[in-house]
Amino acid sequence: MKKMSLVLAAVMTASMILSACGGSKPADPSASAGTTAAAGGETSAPAEAAGGLDLAVRVGPNPETIDPALNSAVDGANIIVHAFETLLIVDSENTIVPGQAESYEVSEDGLTYTFHLREGLKWSDGSPLTANDFVYSWKRLAAPETAAPYAADMLGYVKGFEGAAAGDGEALAVSAPDDNTFVVELSVPCIYFAKLVTHASMVPVQQASVEANGEQWSLAPETYISNGPLKMTEWVPGSHIVLAKNENYWNAEAVTLNTLKFALMEDTNSYYSAYQSGELSMIKQPPTEEIPTLKGAEDFHVEPSMGTYYIDFQNQKEPFNNPDVRKALSLAIDRDYVANTVMQGIYTPAKNFVGPGISDAKDGSFFADVTTEKNGGDFFNPSNYEADVAKAKELLAKAGYPDGQGFPTIEYMTNDAGYHKAVAEYLQSCWKEALGINTDIKVVEWATFTPTRRAGDYQVARDGWVYDYDDPSNMLNLMMSTSGNNNAKYSNPELDKLLNEANSTSNIEEHYEKLHQAENMILEDAAIAPVAYYNDFWLQDPKLKGTWHSPYGYWFFQYATME
Pairing with 486, which of 20, 48, 153, 292 sits 20 to 30 Å away (CA)? Predict the structure, then answer.
């Protein structure tokens, strides 16, 4: 096997920096197969801690869960990535670098990954952390009783996953030959597996704490044992979570924080006031009515976030089980108006499902550009809304509801944050004016919204996805019938087959070609309705330094300093 540094190998498999940020696309992610990666770099944190900073921020409301296996929302993940660490991590340059594993190697056939853990790893309670902890945690993620939303997405191509998902706890092909070696066998090659390893659901959890406390283990500081740069010291539900420096973290000397307080505030005016008073040093999504005056201010930031804001139709419920109905409702949306007027230009109109900045097969190419070229245009044309409305009316009449006659009132479920309510009010007006359909808006608090949507207990709901790794499959796989994140309850055996073929080939051109076919199938069937491409916007004290924002929707504070 050829040897190379992990940082260099990571460039070949790394999550990309968005071109809109001025970054460049990584090399062919399949290039890491058959190579050994030795420890070649650490995080980009300062070598020595500046020390002692007590920081308070707001990145989301009360999370539904911070159990890494159960979480599927970016607000919970922002907490998890500070408390836990995966085998490989993504640094401030969006490069994969060593985390709990100081090196790894991939077999020539791309089917076996061997990770070598750092010596002397510990849990936050001081007890030893070994490769067996990863064996336990990945098997827990796959187990049906866990009901992890990400199980199939993260572990679906690990050998034995189907058996593990069916209840055979020993089927998953992960093992620990010794305390410092973790081996993963894949059933088929996965050209982006190193990227999956960095996901927040793939962290280890302490078996003793989980088994002794059951579902309650993640709800209290004394049982929320973690392995990352910070550890939980306080949680007041609906108020705040406090994390403190984890002295047992392998790189604790680099951590500059004393404490990090996550204010769990849902009311935009409340956390905006807290920021203005200096109580909080950073807030995600300030009040949208303040955006016009905030633009251009030193502390106002807008950066690309790789993701798509879309609408779920509950595909199993009438009349949304009719693709003509779904397509009519989707085409009736003026995406340019939503992005540039309702969302005040903070977001970008969606033209397809997969947005800009996601890689394609050829080095330097992007999936969205290739889509436009292959299809001779985009699925939605925001600049010609009238044509889309005319087609929408035809489809609705074809479905048996000319001018909306006989169509039941839609209940649209959303949470009241950012632009969500404003978008809901636009849809209410749009569907009435364009199609003659009435809509009732149901606003639900965040902690209730996500489980209700996941359970399919709605008619139409707002949704969105920020990528976990740089591959279109991460978005398109949401529509697989087996995905725990398929909130639309869409089921299409042809799509499942196509995506499974795309994700199990070692041929990079075939991988992307099948993903293009899958995207077209999803859009033609109107499984969901893409509306806009995400950007993150936030306010941050200009004196706060050493933090960074990831295009995957995370903020990192563990190396922060205050001038």
Answer: 20
- In this structure, the answer to whether residues 220 and 125 fall within a common structural domain is no
d(CA 174, CA 180): 14
CATH number of the domain within which 264 lies? 3.40.190.10
- Look up the CATH number of the domain holding residue 172: 3.90.76.10
d(CA 76, CA 80): 6
382 plus 477 within the same structural domain? yes
Residue 158 pairs with which residues in a beta bridge?
Answer: 186
Residue 416's pLDDT is: 86
Helices 493-503 and 508-524, packing angle to 10 deg:
160
pLDDT of the residue at 3: 28
Residue reference for tokens 């996500």: 450
Residue pLDDT, tens place only, 119-174: 999 999 999 999 999 999 999 999 999 999 999 999 999 999 999 999 998 999 99
Cβ neighbours for 119, distance < 8 A, ≥ 6 positions apart: 180
Q: Which amino acid is present at 146?
A: T
Strand, helix or coil for residue 447: helix
Model confidence pLDDT, tens digit, residues 265-311: 999 999 999 999 999 999 999 998 999 999 999 999 999 889 999 99
Determine the Cα–Cα distance for residues 149 and 121; give it in Å rounded to an integer: 28
- What tens digit of pLDDT does each residue of 201-251 get? 999 999 999 999 999 999 999 999 999 999 999 999 999 999 999 999 999
| Alpha-carbon gap, residue 544 to 279, rounded angstroms | 13
Residue 157 sits in the same domain as residue 190: yes
Question: Is residue 484 one of the residues assigned to a domain?
Answer: yes
C-alpha 415, offset from chain centre = 18
Half-sphere exposure of 240 (CA within 13 A, CB side): 16
Question: What's the rounded Cα separation, in Å, for the pair 286 and 557?
Answer: 19
33 and 51 assigned to the same domain: no
- Tell me how crowded residue 267 is: count the other CB atoms within 10 A of its CB: 12
* Average pLDDT value over all residues in the chain: 90
Range of the domain at 329: 304-535
Q: What is the pLDDT of residues 22-50, one digit of tens each?
A: 222 222 323 333 333 333 334 444 433 44
Rounded to whole angstroms, how far apart are CA atoms 458 and 313? 9
Residues in contact with 10: Cβ distance below 8 Å, sequence separation at least 6, in sequence order: 37, 88, 95, 96, 97, 194
Say if pTM beats, i.e. exceeds, 0.85. no
Q: Are both 118 and 238 inside the same structural domain?
A: no
What is the C-alpha separation between 192 and 305, in angstroms, rounded? Answer: 20
Instruction: State how many domains the chain has.
Output: 3
- 341/459 same-domain check: yes
Per the domain annotation, does 218 fall within a domain? yes
Same structural domain for residues 324 and 226? Answer: no
Together in a domain, 345 and 408:
yes
- Residue 548 domain-assigned (yes or no): yes
Q: Please give the helix or strand (H or E) that residue 81 lies within, else none.
A: helix 74-83
Instruction: Give residue 469's pLDDT.
Output: 87
Longest Cα separation, the chain: 69
Whichever domain contains 491, its CATH number is: 3.10.105.10
Q: How many CB atoms lie within 10 A of CB 300?
A: 16
Question: Which residues are registered as beta bridge partners of 334?
Answer: none
Both tokens of residue 157? 């191509």
